[in-house]
Design goal:
The complex is a heterodimer of chains A (245) and B (481). By secondary structure, chain A is mostly helical. Chain A has six helices and no strands. The model of chain A is unreliable at 218-231 and 233-245 (pLDDT under 50). In chain B, a hairpin with a 4-residue loop joins β1 (40-43) and β2. The longest helix of chain B has 21 residues, at 389-409. Chain B has a domain at 291-420: Regulator of G-protein Signalling 4, domain 2 (Orthogonal Bundle), CATH 1.10.167.10. In chain B, α3 crosses α4, α5 (121-135) crosses α7 and α18 packs across α19. A four-stranded antiparallel β-sheet of chain B has the order 1-2-4-3. The relative contact order of chain B is 0.07. Chain B starts with a helix and ends with a helix. Classes of the chains: A mainly alpha (245), B mainly alpha (481). Chains A and B meet through α1, α3, α4 and α6 of A and α2, β2, β4, α5 and α6 of B.
């Protein structure tokens, strides 16, 4: 009787751990997405020490989530035997985490190169910054990344490496992951069907985004009054509803 | 020979994307507030966005900085747009620089092309998923195709891709409206460069990947020095030709072929690479019935040209058949077959050739001198690919010195020359060009072409060689009657 109760407790703990990992993966996605959004400002006219500090902080957060998630996923996969119900879910999480790490490492490599091109140590370096058209900063994005919650963020203290070592560390991590756990990547089935993300209406305020494309078309009207609303030679329509381009 | 030549190591180094660093330096110079390109504000309906530059300003700046004329500056500007350092704000799918008041903007360094890494399909999949979220499934046709492809072969990662796309979308929404417009324009421009829509020419086609980073300095290890020594020794050992002789040969070649090179001269009717119209290729198929005038002219340049062109060879064969000396060409073709054919059938082929052409009293006996015949017969005891090389060269020279001259004066050739087509040059309008681009289809598969070749060969073999003994016997019979 007590053996049965033990296994129930085991199953429950495992379920809790798996859910924890899923939520952590979601936050990792959020943090890396914010990181990428901020990285696009590097080297532009909005670049500055402030942006670089924000990037560092976000990177540290990402690193903490990564290390915790890595440890937990690894232990879950090692102790789980074949055929248990959650195994599929854990394997899927594993693949998602792998892809996440690779994607994040690419971003890190890019910003390392960009920070070398635009050192910002001297006054004249500011003149070389690209006039990319940005007017505002990315503080809101950084705040979004800073607001994430994971159970182990505040508890565990892991030393965060600097940029170069971080990239190398991810390489080591990836290699270790491929060697220690034998999960065939191709056997994982995604839960998302194709094209579904365009149909769901969870993201509110999508209507206003239509106008982003229209905005980019509309401006041509004010420029070119003679030959129609855009430079397309077939366009004789002088109005805003031209879809030719 | 300079030291630089040696460092090349004969690898025909293709500076693939090493030019990117140089373009980057130019772009950085353009940013200078005093000496850089003048920028203006782009006025949209709800907001204004700074740092828009006009095409004519870019052209003027480049022309001034590099002291060149406007056409060259425009070409260089187009290159910068094609690489993705500057993107157009109107007509975003055409990566060219228009030297008028069209607006452009600099691309942020995050989206610059890099030599060190390829642009990943994962990123493209995330971008397409994001675009799908934004446009609710209304993607363009080529984007839909790409999406389906990526969904198929990145299926295991698809959860990650959708999750990341949603997060990136939400992160993007945190920014202020004008910055969001700018970021969307930038991202769209980036993918137009790296995954060009049909009909767009981007500069990202760079040919093969090299194993070694050409920008990296090589470490001077003992192995490196050993390699250098070996290559220098080989350089010293190479045979030399007087430069006057080699230059003379080059000049003769270029003056002869000047008008036949599609790069240097207009290609009639039109170059398919430019106008997307394949008439030129169909007119110049290997076994076309009526060749073009240019092609026939090339046959008069040298005997090699005539033989290498399948249509030319067929014409020559017809002429030789009329002269009853077809065995020379047949022998030469048989030798080529032996040289390039499969190894297993080599012995039988060599024996067959000996029986048909070289043995005493053979049906198609060829006339070669005694010494060559001696060498060949001795070599046939242990046949290999090149055993008939001496005889083949002899016959080739014979044909070149004798038959070739007569061929050029023959009625066969004159007939072909008369019937040759000289197509008119195409004159396509812009719309027609676009239609041509849309109608592009892959050409005949090489498998089908090879099948056609084999059919031709079989037809030739079936029509039977003109047997000299048969001809002699026919003549004798005629005489008897």
């Amino acid at each position: 009787m007590s053996r049965w109760r033990q296994s129930v407790v085991e199953i429950q703990t495992r379920k809790r751990q798996v859910n924890e990992c899923e939520r952590a993966q979601a936050t990792l996605s959020k943090v890396t997405a914010c990181f990428q959004q901020m990285a696009t400002s590097l080297g532009s006219n909005m670049d500055g020490n402030f942006l670089r500090e924000e990037l560092e902080e976000t990177r540290t957060v990402a690193h903490k989530i990564c290390s915790g998630l890595h440890r937990r996923l690894l232990s879950l996969l090692i102790e789980m035997e074949q055929g248990q119900e959650d195994k599929e879910q854990v394997e899927r999480l594993w693949v998602i985490f792998l892809s996440s790490l690779e994607n994040f490492q690419q971003d890190l490599k890019k910003i390392k190169v960009l920070q070398e091109i635009f050192p910002l140590t001297q006054r004249k370096d500011r003149q070389a910054l690209i006039n990319a058209g940005y007017a505002g900063g990315t503080s809101e994005v950084a705040a979004r990344a800073a607001m994430v919650q994971t159970p182990w963020l505040s508890i565990e203290e892991t030393a965060s490496p600097d940029l170069k070592n971080h990239i190398v560390e991810i390489d080591v991590l990836l290699e270790e992951m491929f060697q220690r756990v034998n999960v065939p990547l191709w056997s994982v089935e995604p839960t998302q069907q194709a094209w579904l993300e365009g149909v769901s209406t969870q993201d509110g305020g999508q209507e206003e985004d239509e106008s982003l494309e229209d905005i980019m078309e509309v401006e041509v009207v004010s420029q070119n009054n003679t030959s129609g609303c855009c430079n397309h030679h077939n366009c004789k329509v002088g109005c805003l509803l031209c879809l030719l381009s | 020979m300079t030291i630089r030549n040696v460092r090349d190591h004969g690898q025909r180094y293709r500076p693939r994307m090493a030019c990117l660093k140089k373009v980057e330096n130019v772009v950085l110079e353009m940013q200078d507030p005093k000496t850089g390109v003048k920028s203006q504000t782009q006025r949209l309906v709800i907001t204004t966005i700074p740092h828009a530059i006009t095409g004519e300003d870019i052209v003027a700046w480049i022309a001034n900085r590099f002291k060149t004329d406007a056409a060259e500056a425009r070409a260089m500007g187009t290159m910068m747009v094609a690489f993705g350092y500057i993107y157009p704000l109107q007509d975003h799918k055409r990566l060219i620089l228009k030297p008028d008041t069209s607006l452009y903007r600099f691309q942020t360094p995050y989206f610059w092309p890099a030599q060190q890494w390829l642009v990943e399909d994962t990123d493209y999949a995330i971008y397409l998923a994001k675009r799908n979220i934004r446009k609710k499934g209304m993607l363009e046709l080529y984007e839909q195709e790409q999406y389906n492809n990526l969904y198929k072969w990145m299926n295991h990662k698809w959860d990650f891709i959708v999750m990341q796309a949603k997060e990136q979308y939400r992160a993007g929404k945190e920014r202020k409206k004008p910055d969001r417009v700018v970021f969307d324009c930038q991202e769209r421009a980036y993918w137009v460069v790296h995954r060009p829509p049909p009909g767009t020419v981007s500069a990202m086609d760079y040919g093969h990947d090299r194993m070694v980073d050409p920008n990296m300095e090589e470490k001077k290890t003992p192995d490196y020095y050993r390699r250098i020594i070996m290559f220098i020794q080989q350089c010293i050992m190479r045979p030399r030709v007087k430069s006057s002789v080699s230059i003379g040969a080059l000049i003769k070649y270029t003056t002869t072929y000047k008008e036949h090179d599609p790069f240097l001269h207009t290609c009639l009717p039109s170059s398919p690479w430019i106008t997307d119209d394949v008439t030129y290729w169909t007119l110049n198929m290997p076994n076309v019935e009526t060749p073009t005038k240019m092609r026939v002219e090339r046959w008069t340049f040298s005997f090699g040209e005539l033989l290498m062109d399948p249509r030319g060879r067929a014409d020559f064969r017809l002429f030789l058949k009329k002269e009853f000396s077809g065995e020379n060409l047949a022998f030469w073709e048989a030798c080529e077959d032996l040289k390039w054919g499969a190894a297993e059938t080599m012995k039988e082929k060599a024996q067959q050739i000996y029986k048909t052409f070289l043995a005493r009293g053979a049906p198609r006996w060829i006339n070669i001198d005694g010494k060559t015949m001696d060498i060949t017969v001795k070599g046939l005891a242990h046949p290999h690919r090149y055993v008939l090389d001496a005889a083949q060269t002899h016959i080739y020279m014979l044909m070149k010195k004798d038959s070739y001259g007569r061929y050029l004066k023959s009625p066969v050739f004159k007939e072909t020359q008369k019937k040759a087509v000289a197509p008119e040059s195409h004159r396509f309008t812009e719309t027609q060009l676009e239609q041509n681009a849309k109608r592009r289809r892959p050409s005949l598969s090489p498998i089908i072409l090879r099948q056609q070749e084999e059919e031709q060969k079989a037809k030739l073999a079936a029509s039977g060689p003109v047997d000299i003994t048969q001809v002699m016997s026919k003549l004798e019979r005629k005489q008897k009657n």
